[in-house]
Amino acid sequence: MGRYTGPRCRLCRREGKRLYLKGARCYTSKCALERRNYPPGMHGQRRAGKPSEYGIQLRAKQQMRRIYGVSERQFRNYFRRAVRQKGITGEILLQLLERRLDNVVYRLGFASSRAEARQLVSHRHIMVNGRIVNIPSYLVREGDVISVKPRSRGIQPIQNAINAAMGRPQVPWLEVDYDQLTGRVLSLPTRDQIDTQVDERLVVEFYSR
User: What pLDDT band is residue 165 in, cutting at 50, 70 and 90?
Assistant: First the structure.
């Protein structure tokens, strides 16, 4: 199954919470949940009942997958990789997702959403350690330097994203220089440094059934 290309607000309505998939719009009254706070579809307003344990786990998995914009196959592969590593599986899974290049570009403030960051990476506007990397799933490592290609620094979406990001607190495991449009990975993220509001233990339980 290919990557989802439909309305992103529909995903937030399905999960019943803001997933912040459309950048600045999600922080305003234009957010779809402000106007239609119920699941999409003709029967959305009639759905009721207490969700099952499986349903709760499924929703947690879908929320995490949609926040980072990865396919089901990619997400399952990340989980399998997390299982093989030493440590707490759920936290390692989140760490892997946070280390994706498109997510790091978003966290640095060079893009207003992960979808926009993915496009910047795919269109060869982003460099890692001085070399162009056009793979959104590329996993950054401690000490890596991420920068906007010099010829791309005047692109309006990047400038708009930076103007919005300068008023927000910086991510503790990243260092950013908005004058030079560069960022550095200070360390790999820990769970308390990741603001993703999804219980990763439910995701582990879903795949452990």
Answer: confident
Of the candidates 25, 209, 102, the one whose C-alpha atom is nearest the C-alpha of residue 8 is 25
As a whole number of angstroms, the distance between CA 193 and CA 121 comes to 24
Residue 40 in this model has a pLDDT that exceeds 80: no
Within 8 A by CB and 6+ apart from 191, the residues are: 88, 91, 94
Averaged pLDDT, 142-159: 94
Residues 6 or more apart whose Cβ sits within 8 Å of residue 111 = 23, 105, 117, 119, 120, 157, 158, 161
pLDDT for the residue numbered 19: 57
Model-level pTM greater than 0.85?
A: no
Query: What gap in Å lies between CA 184 and CA 92, rounded to an integer?
Result: 21
Answer yes or no: are the C-beta atoms of 90 and 201 closer than 8 Å. Answer: yes
Domains defined for the chain, CATH in brackets: 8-97+196-207 (1.10.1050.10), 100-188 (3.10.290.10)
Question: In this structure, what token pair is assigned to residue 1?
Answer: 């199954």
